């Protein structure tokens, strides 16, 4: 499109953003990232996914965003690259081990994991310190990784449901193995408590197991038997049992919410308003950490959508998003329209209710604090 | 080995003052002469004692180059030139030359008049210093002297900012000053050709950041202005005459038009005149868009922005005012500030750095009660916003610049080495060049490998090619024979014959002669024949002749036999060879000293 036309659209969106966002920061990385992972309350890791050499960067969020008092006196809007390192292959999955300066990655080509030291005060270099062997030397999607929330550095990982194992980082010892025969590839893996985890398969089935027992996992079948549909899952691990819910989203835009204690039971559903159903590979669905009932979805296009699941009913109906972040789609620099920009990942800030980070295939990273349209018109929400 | 030395002057690891010494090809150049804004004592000046303990700097420096008008790059200039003493040439671009003295005078007034400092430069010193300035045009090579030449490149960042290319012989250095790689509303992006300097020197202050987009900064500005106007407040924006003021005006004008806003925007007239004047002078330094606008109309003929009159400050209702000076230390902006400070609906937006001692600096540090003249206190109730619009290159920008210039080595100043190991590794890996990070006061020595270009005569080249064999290859150099003639400033390689001809000299011939004694009972002639046969069997592939005049010739070597006077069995061999056959000659003499094998006839 014409430069002038492009600039105009950008202007419109930016002007609109004065009302629709409290804070907005737009960055351009040298190389796009598929991973966004918190390493502390104010820093995230990103990493490249090209075929050969890539960088892992730890970025400290701009001071202006985090400042609460004296925010207006702080002019610092930039990311600080606090640590950086090099990898030999792509990074498809990156997990930070809580309470440490350690991270574990997977390259999406096999189920082996790489272990990294993110560096401290004395050095700004992220160094590889070791590796963990997975079950498969070649894997189409690579492994999912989840870090045990407690103090002992342990990682749960696997490329398919039968491979899931818990490995102790220091010794490399396998502490637990999931006993099941199914070879379904995984699309998500996460702890919902210190020992209980949820494994979501690409076909939509969800397994829940406890690493303390060797009892077989609870299985909840896929909401749909359609063959070509891929599913992604996220569990809300809230403190109250009522907030322990699981959402599953399919590549055709179907969304199903169920209670963690009763996965097969009646929950609520919706048909999401996604632009290009079917054409997606990196869908991310996430419960908002502090906003009850809110979920976010990305990966279908250059947009991140936020939905309020409280409005969903038992029967699947078309749902309208509560909010859409269109920044990546609108400001994409790509001229090649055959491969439009899509959002590769997004995360919520763990404490600030409406702050998110999102990354797209054109290398852009946005940090945004959106305004709830239902509360607009009054004084700005704190 | 030839080398270039770079030393950032200053104490400790302090950022905030640029002053770099470069020694190249026997020349000493000082790059920038900045003031450290955080100190009140002599620590704010660069440490010139590194150059000389006492006395003037003129004899020690070949030139001084200033990259742009920001005080952390030129603030110490009058001090260095008039108080320490330097009478040599000072180079800077035309806009820098025009704007520097204004900023220096402002700075001087604040420091001396407001803070009562004594050991500071005077107005006259600023004037005297600027008399030594030689202005530079972009991309124009300037000969500082016979050997040292410099050239300025566009750096973006602020009006008149330049990157400088310094060359002595075949060694060169590029200093970036402050620059940015993304164009903004009124300035273009830095640009340099593939000049392949031995060292590219750059600041590392922003090297480990990823900059938020310009649009987001603008958005924040518009949001704040809009929110204040909506609640009926007044917005004061103190600005310096140039640069950001234009950009912000264009932004507001576009926004007002788009949103159909009615609140008045004012621009103090002093600002308009000055700004117009400078933009007219330096139109080539702004970007395409500004140039087009300027050509079409006067810079400041905006639909929504009008000239300010001091009485308007008391008008009720919302308004936006741009006024000078930028740090709220005097004049109109301070007057307006005093009137509006007491109302919390109002806002002041500081678009840049404020020097210590100014009201701007105080309110940016959170001070809410100010002491004014006559012991009066001013309660600061209005909203204070600090926004940074300055254009700097970040980590990505540095990589882009290195890609553009293709330096052989990289040098980053003003960074903590421990916090930059990753960047160093990245540069070294991607470009396979060394990356240096000297601390202030530390000298980095970079060995250069200058290539000396030499013209070769066509005849010589043809002759070498005719010798056949593989073509010369940088990895497999081939030895060749020629004469190097250095005449005036040119170097050429010619064949020896041509050199002798040109110099009008005759070639001398050098012949060696040696005698070898041999015991042999035969006649002289027979001995000679035996020698001939022996040599023929040993020296296969060589031309050996037995001439009827009683000599054996091997290549150019002549061998004769005669008998000793005392004893006819003692033969004396005379060997004679020319210098070119030295190796063969000495081989033959050693061989023949061993005697002839018995079986020869």
TrEMBL record, chain A:
Q: Which GO terms describe its biological process?
A: cytoplasmic microtubule organization
**Alphabetized InterPro entries for the sequence:** WD40/YVTN_repeat-like_dom_sf, WD40_repeat_dom_sf, WD40_rpt, Wdr73
Give TM segment ranges. Answer: none
Query: Cellular component per GO?
Result: cytosol; spindle pole
The record ties this protein, via SUPFAM superfamilies, to: WD40 repeat-like (SSF50978)
Could you tell me what this protein is called?
WD repeat domain 73
Q: Taxonomic lineage per UniProt?
A: Eukaryota, Metazoa, Chordata, Craniata, Vertebrata
Automatic annotation (TrEMBL), chain B:
Required co-factor(s) are: Zn(2+)
- Principal place of residence: cytoplasm
Task: Determine if NADP is one of this entry's keywords.
Answer: no
Gene3D superfamilies according to UniProt: 3.40.50.10890, Ribonuclease Z/Hydroxyacylglutathione hydrolase-like
Keywords on record: Cytoplasm, Hydrolase, Metal-binding, Nucleus, Zinc
Q: Name one GO biological process term.
A: regulation of RNA splicing
TM region(s), chain numbering: none
**Where does this protein have coiled-coil stretches?**
none
Q: Which InterPro entries match?
A: Beta_Casp, INTS11-like_MBL-fold, IntS11_C, MBL, Metallo-B-lactamas, RibonucZ/Hydroxyglut_hydro, RMMBL
Keyword Nucleus assigned to the entry: answer is yes
**Which SMART domains does its entry note?**
Beta-Casp, Lactamase_B
The record's annotation in Pfam families points to:
Beta-Casp (PF10996), IntS11_C (PF21386), Lactamase_B_6 (PF16661), RMMBL (PF07521)
For the Beta-Casp domain, which residue ranges apply? 245-363
Domain Metallo-beta-lactamase, by residue range, is 16-229
Say which domain of life the source belongs to. Answer: Eukaryota
Which GO terms label this protein's molecular function in UniProt?
A: hydrolase activity; metal ion binding; RNA endonuclease activity
One GO location term (cellular component):
cytoplasm
Where it sits in the cell: the answer is: Cytoplasm; Nucleus
CDD domains in the cross-refs: INTS11-like_MBL-fold
Q: Hey, which family's this protein in?
A: Belongs to the metallo-beta-lactamase superfamily. RNA-metabolizing metallo-beta-lactamase-like family. INTS11 subfamily.
What is the protein's given name? Integrator complex subunit 11
């Amino acid at each position: 499109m014409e430069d002038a036309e492009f600039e105009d659209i950008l202007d419109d969106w930016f002007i609109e953003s004065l009302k629709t966002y409290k804070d907005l920061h737009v960055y351009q990385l040298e190389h796009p990232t598929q991973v966004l992972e918190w390493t502390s309350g104010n820093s995230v890791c990103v990493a490249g996914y090209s075929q050969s050499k890539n960088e892992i960067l730890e970025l400290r969020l701009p001071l202006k965003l985090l400042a609460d008092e004296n925010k207006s006196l702080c002019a610092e809007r930039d990311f600080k690259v606090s640590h950086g390192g090099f990898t030999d292959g792509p990074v498809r999955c990156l997990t930070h081990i809580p309470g440490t300066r350690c991270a574990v990655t997977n390259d999406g080509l096999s189920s082996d994991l790489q272990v990294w030291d993110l560096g401290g005060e004395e050095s700004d270099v992220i160094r590889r310190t070791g590796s963990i062997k997975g079950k498969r030397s070649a894997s189409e999607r690579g492994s999912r990784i989840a870090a045990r929330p407690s103090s002992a550095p342990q990682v749960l990982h696997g490329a398919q449901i039968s491979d899931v194992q818990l490995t102790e980082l220091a010794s490399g010892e396998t502490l637990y193995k999931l006993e099941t025969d199914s070879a379904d590839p995984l699309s998500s893996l996460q702890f919902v408590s210190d020992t209980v985890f949820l494994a979501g398969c690409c076909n939509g089935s969800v397994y829940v197991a406890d690493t303390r027992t060797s009892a077989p996992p609870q299985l909840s079948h896929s909401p749909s038997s359609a063959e070509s549909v891929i599913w992604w899952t996220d569990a809300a691990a809230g403190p109250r049992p009522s907030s322990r819910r699981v959402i599953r989203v399919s590549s055709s835009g179907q969304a199903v919410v169920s209670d963690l204690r009763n996965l097969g039971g009646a929950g609520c559903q919706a048909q999401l308003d996604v632009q290009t159903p079917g054409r997606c590979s990196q869908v991310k669905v996430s419960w908002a950490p502090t906003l009850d009932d809110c979920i976010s979805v990305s990966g279908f296009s250059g947009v991140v959508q936020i939905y309020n699941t409280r409005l969903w009913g038992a029967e699947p109906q078309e749902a309208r998003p509560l909010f859409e972040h269109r920044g990546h789609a609108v400001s994409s620099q790509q001229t090649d329209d055959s491969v439009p920009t899509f959002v590769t990942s997004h995360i919520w800030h763990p404490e600030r209710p409406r702050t998110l980070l999102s990354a797209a295939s054109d290398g852009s990273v946005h940090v945004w604090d959106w305004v709830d349209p239902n509360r607009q018109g009054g004084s700005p929400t704190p | 080995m030839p080398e270039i030395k770079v030393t950032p002057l200053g104490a400790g690891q302090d950022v905030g003052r640029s002053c770099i010494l470069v020694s190249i090809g026997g020349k000493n150049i000082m790059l920038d002469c900045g003031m450290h804004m955080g100190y009140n004592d002599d620590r704010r000046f660069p440490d010139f004692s590194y150059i000389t303990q006492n006395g003037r700097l003129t004899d020690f420096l070949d030139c001084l180059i200033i990259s742009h008008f920001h005080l952390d790059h030129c603030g110490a200039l009058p001090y260095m030139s008039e108080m320490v003493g330097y009478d040599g040439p000072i180079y800077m671009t035309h806009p820098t030359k025009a704007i520097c003295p204004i900023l220096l005078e402002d700075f001087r007034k604040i420091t001396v008049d407001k803070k009562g400092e004594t050991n500071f430069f005077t107005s006259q010193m600023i004037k005297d210093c600027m008399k030594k300035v030689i202005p530079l045009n972009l991309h124009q090579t300037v000969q500082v002297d016979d050997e040292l030449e410099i050239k300025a490149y566009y750096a973006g960042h602020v009006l008149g900012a330049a990157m400088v290319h310094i060359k002595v012989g075949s060694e060169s250095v590029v200093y970036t000053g402050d620059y940015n790689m993304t164009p903004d509303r009124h300035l273009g992006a830095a640009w340099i050709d593939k000049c392949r300097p031995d060292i590219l020197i750059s600041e590392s202050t922003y090297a480990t950041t990823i900059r938020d987009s310009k649009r987001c900064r603008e958005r924040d500005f518009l949001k704040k202005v809009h929110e204040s106007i909506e609640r009926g407040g007044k917005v004061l924006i103190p600005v310096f005459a140039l640069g950001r003021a234009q950009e912000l005006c264009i932004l507001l004008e576009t926004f007002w038009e788009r949103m159909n806003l009615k609140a008045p925007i004012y621009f103090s007239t002093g600002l308009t005149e000055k700004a117009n004047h400078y933009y007219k002078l330096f139109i080539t330094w702004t970007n395409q868009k500004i140039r087009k606008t300027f050509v079409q109309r006067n810079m400041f003929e905006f639909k929504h922005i009008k000239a300010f009159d001091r009485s308007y400050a008391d008008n009720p209702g919302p308004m936006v005012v741009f006024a000078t000076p930028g740090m709220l230390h005097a004049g109109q902006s301070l007057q307006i500030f005093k009137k509006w400070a007491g109302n919390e609906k109002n806002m002041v937006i500081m678009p840049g750095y404020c020097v210590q001692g100014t009201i701007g600096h105080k309110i940016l540090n959170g001070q809410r009660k100010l002491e004014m003249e006559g012991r009066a206190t001013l309660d600061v109730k209005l909203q204070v916003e600090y926004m940074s619009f300055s254009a700097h290159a970040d980590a990505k920008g540095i990589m882009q610049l290195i890609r553009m210039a293709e330096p052989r080595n990289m040098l980053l100043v003003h960074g903590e080495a421990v916090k930059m190991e990753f960047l160093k590794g990245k540069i070294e890996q991607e470009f396979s060049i060394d990356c240096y990070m000297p601390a202030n006061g530390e000298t980095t020595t970079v060995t250069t490998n200058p290539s000396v270009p030499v013209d070769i005569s066509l005849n010589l080249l043809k002759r070498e090619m005719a010798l056949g064999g593989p073509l010369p290859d940088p990895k497999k150099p081939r030895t060749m024979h020629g004469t190097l003639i250095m005449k005036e400033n040119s170097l050429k390689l010619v064949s020896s014959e041509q050199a002798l001809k040109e110099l009008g000299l005759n070639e001398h011939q050098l012949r060696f002669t040696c005698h070898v004694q041999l015991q042999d009972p035969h006649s002289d002639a027979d001995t000679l024949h035996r020698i001939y046969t022996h040599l023929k069997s040993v020296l296969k592939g060589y031309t050996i002749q037995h001439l009827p005049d009683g000599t054996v010739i091997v290549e150019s070597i002549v061998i004769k036999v005669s008998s000793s006077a005392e004893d006819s069995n003692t033969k004396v061999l005379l060997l004679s060879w020319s210098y070119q056959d030295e190796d063969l000659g000495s081989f033959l003499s050693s061989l023949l000293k061993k005697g002839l094998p018995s079986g020869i006839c």
